[in-house]
């Protein structure tokens, strides 16, 4: 996990150094990193709770 978090930190640092602190690209990188994991965990939780809606019933 530590190695993966370093990649996000590097992406944020690169965006800020390349585009500047006040740019939209740097803001998008920071917001994307902070929002991505909670959104993905929420989607997984939703799919797990509603899996009976889309599971194929066996015709045996």
Short description:
The chain has 60 residues and is mainly alpha-helical. The chain contains 3 helices and no strands.
Q: How would you describe this structure in keywords?
A:
60 residues, mainly alpha, 80% helix, rod-shaped, antiporter activity
Euclidean distance between termini CA atoms: 44 Å
Q: Return residue spans where pLDDT drops below 50 for at least 5 consecutive residues.
A: none
| Count of domains | 1
Element-level helix/strand string: HHH
Number of helices: 3
Structural class determined from secondary elements: mainly alpha
Shape: rod-shaped
Could you give a short account of the major beta sheet? Answer: none
Strand content: under 5%
Helix content: over 70%
Whole-number radius of gyration?
A: 18 Å
- The beta-strand count equals 0
Mean pLDDT: 81
Protein name: Arsenical-resistance protein
GO molecular function: antimonite transmembrane transporter activity; antiporter activity; arsenite transmembrane transporter activity
Organism: Acetobacter oeni
InterPro entries: Arsenical-R_Acr3
Q: Your description of this structure?
A:
With 60 residues, the chain is mainly alpha-helical. It has one domain. The protein contains 3 helices and no strands. Helix 1 packs antiparallel against helix 2. The N and C termini lie far apart (44 Å).
């Amino acid at each position: 996990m530590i190695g993966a978090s370093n990649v996000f930190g590097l992406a944020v640092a690169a965006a800020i150094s390349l585009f500047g602190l006040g740019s939209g690209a740097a803001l998008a990188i920071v917001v994307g990193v902070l929002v991505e994991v909670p959104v993905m965990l929420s989607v997984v939780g939703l799919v797990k709770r509603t899996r009976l809606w889309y599971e194929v019933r066996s015709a045996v």
